[in-house]
Write a structure and sequence with these properties.
By secondary structure, the protein is α/β, with parallel strands linked by helices. The chain has 15 helices and 14 strands. The radius of gyration is 23 Å and the shape is elongated.
Length: 403
């Protein structure tokens, strides 16, 4: 196996790059890096570049020589080149941000450096590692923007999404909530839940995503969730939310999810793609075919929030999911609600006949848990077992402690 390295360099732009030029540079870098299994990040500040490349030694060394010949920059200096045990940017073929001087001055350990009027081309190895550390995790990492959307066959003349629009996206991170198997008395997975940098709820983040950026944000979020979970030491399944699966380019967005998982050492069969029950598509048959293709690639499919809205059992026939998660409306106070008990008993039997697993989400009391478990539900998620852990993988309370 080829030795893995990371290489950090800086350089000075030969002219002031426009947003369009930066977008073109970034698109080319991402296409090349994907083919070479290279990941990393690129900063642009005040006419200077700072880039981190990580991947197989031979490929990184060959790429840096190609970059050296690019006429768009000069005064290129390799600051660090050393072996790498684990990728820091496994979800990014090239993460990018355009920093302002105020941004740079607020990075811990660099306040005095940029406050003295220095620029990226003045960085030494110590300062470079401070930037690297800042962008490995936390609030700075979420400044790295997603790839520009892939062109669609029927939209060759559509205008590109500008860097300005990409920068308008809100900062975000993730909390992870455990999913347990009560019959096996073990942890089986975590759901990745979008959160703001101050742990704001997902709805607060999503309402600030520009309308034309929803699909790219969705794809970007899955990759970031996988990368963060891998760095935290994920050893179970990971449940990822998905929207807009009716889009013509959806297969490519799922491919990027699979590529990121592979780089992070997470096999496809540990990925569970959660689609909202109420999600609407123009062609349910096409979506069903697409879900079958995802399943052939190894992913598992779950219908989320099952039992809410107007859709019902027909979804189990159309999409043939591997699992469903129950709406909290069905779960809440189930032990005392006769009509919902009848609905749940019928649903449990239907899913048992179809080989579909059920996850009861939002379980908060031992009474809810015991009624559901006695009726055949085996997988659970909720505050009774563990609250979501912000940028952490909390250990759940297992049923042995509830018996």
């Amino acid at each position: 196996m080829s030795t893995m390295i990371h290489l950090i360099y800086n350089s000075a732009a030969t002219h002031a790059f426009t947003d369009a030029e930066l977008e073109s540079l970034l698109r080319k870098a991402r296409n090349n890096n994907a083919a070479l299994d290279i990941t990393g990040m690129l900063l642009y500040l005040d006419g200077c570049f700072f880039q981190v490349l990580e991947g197989p030694q031979a490929e990184v060394d060959a790429l840096i020589e190609t970059i050296r010949q690019d006429p768009g920059h000069t005064r290129m200096t390799i600051i660090i080149r050393e072996p790498l045990a684990h990728r820091a940017f496994s979800e990014w073929t090239m993460g990018f941000t355009r920093l302002s001087l105020d941004d740079a001055r607020s990075i811990d350990g660099l306040n005095d450096f940029f406050g003295s009027g220095n620029v990226l081309t003045d960085l030494d190895a110590g300062r470079a590692k401070k930037i690297l550390t800042a962008f490995k995790h936390g609030r700075w990492r979420v400044r790295l923007v997603a790839p520009p959307p892939r062109p669609r066959a029927d939209a060759s003349h559509a205008p590109a999404v500008s860097s300005r629009a990409a920068r308008a996206r809100p900062e975000f991170s993730f909390a992870f909530q455990p999913i347990i198997d009560a019959s096996k008395r073990q942890l089986v997975g975590y759901e990745a839940l979008v959160r703001g940098p101050q742990q704001q709820h997902a709805a607060d983040v999503l309402q600030r995503v520009p309308l034309g950026e929803i699909a790219a944000f969705d794809e970007d979020a899955r990759r970031m969730a996988i990368g963060l979970a891998a760095r935290l030491g994920l050893a179970t399944n990971i449940h990822l939310n998905a929207v807009l699966l009716g889009r013509a380019d959806a297969p490519e967005t799922i491919d990027s999810t699979l590529e990121t998982a592979a780089r992070c050492g997470i096999s496809a069969d540990r990925l569970v793609l959660e689609i909202k029950q109420e999600a609407t598509v123009t062609d349910p048959s096409a979506l069903a075919a697409r879900l079958r293709e995802y399943r052939r690639k190894g992913l598992r499919i779950s219908i989320d929030d099952f039992g809410s809205g107007h859709a019902g059992l027909a979804l189990l026939d159309h999409y043939q999911p591997d699992m469903i998660s129950l709406s909290m409306w069905l779960v809440r106070g189930i032990e005392t609600h006769g009509p919902r008990q009848a609905i749940l008993r019928g649903l449990v039997q239907t899913c048992r006949d179809l080989g579909i697993d059920i996850i009861a989400k939002g379980v908060e009391t031992t009474e809810e848990y015991r009624w559901l478990y006695d009726e055949g539900v085996e997988r659970f998620q909720g505050f009774l077992f563990a609250k979501p852990g912000f940028e952490s993988l909390p250990k759940p309370l297992l049923p042995t402690a509830l018996d």
